[in-house]
Amino acid sequence: MTRWNTSHIPDQTGRSAVVTGANSGIGYVTARELARRGARVVLACRNESRGHTALARLRSEVPAAKAEFRQLDLADLKSVRAFAAGLDDFDGERLDLLINNAGVMALPERRTADGFEMQFGTNHLGHFALTGLLLPKLLGTPGARVVTVSSGFHALANVKLSDLNSERGYHRWIAYGRSKSANLLFSHELSRRLARAGSQVLAVAAHPGYADTNLQTAGVRMEGRTRTERAVTLLNRVVAQPAESGALPTLCAATAPHMKPDAFLGPRGALRGGPASSFRAPWTTDDATGERLWAASEELTGVTYEFGGVRAEG
């Protein structure tokens, strides 16, 4: 995958994709490039105004794009269920790509609509529920893939199964690391269960390295920390790679032929560079932890996975 870029994306004509958090950053670039190659794309975004603005921008950059906006708030399970139910009219029973991209990072302590710690609830539980609800479409589509976007910061912390919602003490960066480890454990366990069920759906993960997006400034902006926001913005300009480059691992994971199950791609240079196999902490491939996180996630979200009518246990 040396020097892999968007010119390597195979023709996506006839394929369909859902990209969460597609209104900006790597999510927007991912949606745009899939649409440019012919895929029909849903921009699944929380903010309606920003979603429509992103859709208009995409259509201006790719005039022939088959794209649409649909509202999705991953921090509200009612919204997740409504989005999945509303997708019944999208491309029939087909869904080739589910890109679990949306996320929040290092926020001050907040709770989701359902009472979950915001980073764990949005980054992991929202996507866990969404994937489970859309699984029938994925299982019915030959060559379908689920790409979950994690982060190199997953190495900060493993999930704490005894305190998934950080009720015994909150540290924004540890909570973020735990949520990103949860993303990788989810992808690993999903891959295992798909294999047990004999499914050809591919579950893989990616991370953008250090990409210049609004993700880094959202938390400090919420707290009104103007000086810190300015410093982070300057650091992004000097050190980070553009979102165009940060999206490449996701696009590669979603479209490159011969991708292995449970692969994890990131920039070759950890923070920057073309897509390559990425370091992952050993706890993110621990089967026992993956099974326990899966069981807890089903209980917390109320979403159970049916693999062709049969629940695939760990």
Describe, in plain words, how this protein is organized in 3D.
This protein is an alpha/beta fold and 314 residues long. It has one domain (10-209, 244-301): Rossmann fold. It has helices at residues 25-36, 48-61, 77-86, 118-139, 172-196, 215-222, 226-239, 243-246, 248-255, 287-301, and strands at 16-20, 40-45, 66-71, 97-100, 145-149, 202-206, 211-212, 241-242, 264-267, 275-277. The strands form two sheets. An eight-stranded mixed beta sheet has the order 3-2-1-4-5-6-9-10, sandwiched between helices. Helix 5 crosses helix 10 (287-301) and helix 6 (215-222) runs antiparallel to helix 7 (226-239). Mean pLDDT is 91; it is low at 216-221.
Write the layout of secondary structure elements.
Elements: E1 16-20, H1 25-36, E2 40-45, H2 48-61, E3 66-71, H3 77-86, E4 97-100, H4 118-139, E5 145-149, H5 172-196, E6 202-206, E7 211-212, H6 215-222, H7 226-239, E8 241-242, H8 243-246, H9 248-255, E9 264-267, E10 275-277, H10 287-301
Parallel strand pairs: 1-2, 1-4, 2-3, 4-5, 5-6, 6-9, 7-8
Antiparallel strand pairs: 9-10
